[in-house]
Amino acid sequence: MTIRRQTRRRILQSILASPLLAGLGTTIKAFAQDADASITAADQALDVFDFERVARERLPPAHFGYLATGVDGDETLHANRAGFANYSLRVRRMVDLSKIDMSVDLFGTTWDSPIVLDPVGSQRAFHPDGELAVARAARSRKHLQILSTVASNAVEDVTKARGAPIWYQLYPTDQWAVTQALVSRAKAAGCPVLVLTVDLQGGTNRVTLGHAIRRDTRDCTACHVSKPPQFLQELPRKPMFRGLDTSAVTDMTPLDMNWDFVKRLRDIWPRKLVVKGIVTREDGELAVEHGVDGLVVSNHGGRGEDSGRASIDSLQEVAAGVSGRMPILVDGGIRRGSDIFKALALGATAVAIGRPYIWGLASFGQEGVEKVLDILRGELLTAMRQAGTRSITEIDRSFVVDNRQ
Ligand SMILES: Cc1cc2nc3c(=O)[nH]c(=O)nc-3n(C[C@H](O)[C@H](O)[C@H](O)COP(=O)(O)O)c2cc1C
Description:
Layout: H1 2-17, H2 25-36, H3 49-58, H4 61-68, H5 75-82, E1 87-89, E2 104-106, E3 109-111, E4 115-117, H6 130-141, E5 146-147, H7 155-162, E6 167-170, H8 176-188, E7 193-197, H9 207-215, H10 231-234, H11 259-268, E8 272-278, H12 281-289, E9 294-297, H13 311-322, E10 328-331, H14 337-345, E11 350-353, H15 355-387, E12 400-402
Parallel strand pairs: 4-11, 5-6, 6-7, 7-8, 8-9, 9-10, 10-11
Antiparallel strand pairs: 1-12, 2-3
Helix pairs in contact: 1-2, 3-15, 4-9, 6-7, 6-15, 12-13, 14-15
The structure holds flavin mononucleotide (FMN).
Residues 66-67, 80, 118-121, 148, 150, 169, 197, 276, 298, 300-301, 303, 331-334, 353-355 line the site of flavin mononucleotide (FMN).
């Protein structure tokens, strides 16, 4: 986005410099300023990137860095976005488009749209109302919300603000007693689905975040235990960990976690179990074998490994491995309705978004999140109409072309 703006600015500057256009200078200057101006209200946004700019301006450097960071050289982060350009839409004409149905079914619940709000930790770092504002937006726009283990609001409060059950994302930690406590709390709060995140096992190296923390001159210890904040030291302050003994926790995901862990989890979680972070066909097949109910194809928004592989590229092979035996969500780099359309065509049942709704939250709270959802739903509707598809189930592989083949 920054590159696009810089290019636009350079083009406008060269136009302004042209002697031929000297008389038009004032008009063009006004246009140049307008093109560069940030939006000041949610309803001015033209696409989700309008919120990214405001979020960057409003958030302290370290908080924006936490949101923006990938790992190592951010290769996977960039690949996630660039990956969508490898696919083009193959559209059909002369279809009756008077009725478009965007609804999807996930474990017996029908959602108005296939757009899900991904678990994103510590949302009060982006807006004082954090996950509660997101829940209110999800409620008003009828979207599914997944709450992070490291949320800055508790599952009971977020469920209340959402006014309906939410899914709960689990970082089990390496202490089984803590896992059990988190799971029973999610169960008691009425969460119908537990989402086990498996893509951070082994740790991450968030270089962009490190640079952002260095640039931030504020005293972090006003809110955090230390500067730079140490994740595990912060745990006792997180609502889902209050009252739990976290002194023995050394990792959010046990280093020895394997498919047996899913069996163990099954014994304490009788409801639906989704695994988040699968990116290969083999693991998709293993998930089916181990009785998992659903998957999120995800590389954690480029925050896990720096494989340089786009999430949208992983989707097809995972879908082939699963072969319709369970629902598959996909996330990573989804910013436009056409991205959502491509993901659905390549085998996703639904899609999830992370950073875009947080840009909305950081910019204008609940209204910002609502507008992000409105924009993406509107863009998907347009993409579906333009492609000649009247329902989500009609969107299949025939509607996209892989430009590399
Ligand atoms: C700031 C931030 C915090 C995140 N926290 C969590 C988390 O607590 N649990 C989790 O499973 N995924 C977490 N994720 C990953 C998202 O759920 C999701 O996989 C990712 O953001 C999707 O990519 P996108 O941001 O490009 O849409 C986080 C992502 C970001 C950007």
